[in-house]
Amino acid sequence: MSHTSPRRLRDFVTALAALLDEQPDEARILDAGGALLRDLVAHDDWLPDDFAAPDPERYRQYLLHADSRARFSVVSFVWGPGQQTPIHDHTVWGLIGVLRGAEISQPYRIDGGALVADGPAHRLERGTVEAVSPRIGDIHRVSNALADRPSVSIHVYGDNIGAVRRSVLLDDGTRKPFISGYSNNTLPNIWDLSREVTA
Amino acid sequence: MSHTSPRRLRDFVTALAALLDEQPDEARILDAGGALLRDLVAHDDWLPDDFAAPDPERYRQYLLHADSRARFSVVSFVWGPGQQTPIHDHTVWGLIGVLRGAEISQPYRIDGGALVADGPAHRLERGTVEAVSPRIGDIHRVSNALADRPSVSIHVYGDNIGAVRRSVLLDDGTRKPFISGYSNNTLPNIWDLSREVTA
Ligand SMILES: [Fe+3]
Ligand SMILES: [Fe+3]
Ligand SMILES: [Mg+2]
């Protein structure tokens, strides 16, 4: 993993931007974008270690790329053993692809002001892609399915997700304002093709 | 400079992408994009030190942002005392804004197969913006005008410039193939607004 090539991530970014340039509706973004993400997480040879490092205290979210007009952002999420997110919403479309390990996803919905499980928790195996959005279901909790090692997933959202004003949901349905930010001060440089040519 | 805000660079990236979304011709890109760059380099309070660090051996070029489809890239160029570029072309439009120090720019053109100076060398003071392109003049050499400290300029190009196949020109007009690459493995994260909100 020390000699990773940025080509796969760069090709994903380029292809997703080309898709969005067609101004597709959300269903098509999730369908065609999901296929692109499935290709990306089918190979675990491209994410630099710095953007897959777990933290002992809590899960991390590393920004990998942001589109110039924030039409989308690409993030690596890293859960240490036993770590999980709070129950949260997104307010924009999102795609989740498991790159390493496995995750448990528990969807929720608001029903008469209360927070209720929206179907059973399910396990996302490596290579799996799942979607969220206000249209199809936007509230969930994600946990590392593994008790003994980190899991890593690659997420794509229809905005600069670290800056979106959204909510953490408490058990009684109360919303707590939430802006996630990012865990990283620097992004990977995926644009230096000269190193690939000379490599 | 240790507590820089990424807002100015993010706003520049967003505004330039909005301009390019209008699919303007090159003259308008250089005119309106040049005005945006002039605003950016009018304040020297936003470039993190890591992307302004000179190298004792040669000038450095740090990628700051690349557009998802490589419609443009933003780079900081750092010349140590006495350093200069070779004579080179770009093959795409470019805008050069001096952020810190001062630079000497010497334009060239090919005349009957030979390389000749295209007007006098001129000094670019802090805050100045200059343009290059195959249409208006694409060959130059840039030098640090200062013998005792680094100069820094912010460049914008109509492609992922580190990956463009272009030329270094020898005195006799011979072209040597040239792909510049970048000096940095990581880009600044300019997308974490949560830090600005809480700062
Ligand atoms: Fe989520
Ligand atoms: Fe140049
Ligand atoms: Mg973009």
TrEMBL record, chains A, B:
Fe cation binds at residues 88, 90, 140. One of its GO terms (molecular function) is ferrous iron binding. SUPFAM superfamilies: RmlC-like cupins. Keywords: Dioxygenase, Iron, Metal-binding, Oxidoreductase. It comes from the Bacteria. InterPro entries: CDO_1, RmlC-like_jellyroll, RmlC_Cupin_sf. The keyword Oxidoreductase applies. Pfam families: CDO_I (PF05995). Belongs to the cysteine dioxygenase family. PANTHER family: CYSTEINE DIOXYGENASE, CYSTEINE DIOXYGENASE TYPE 1. This is Cysteine dioxygenase. It comes from Derxia gummosa DSM 723.
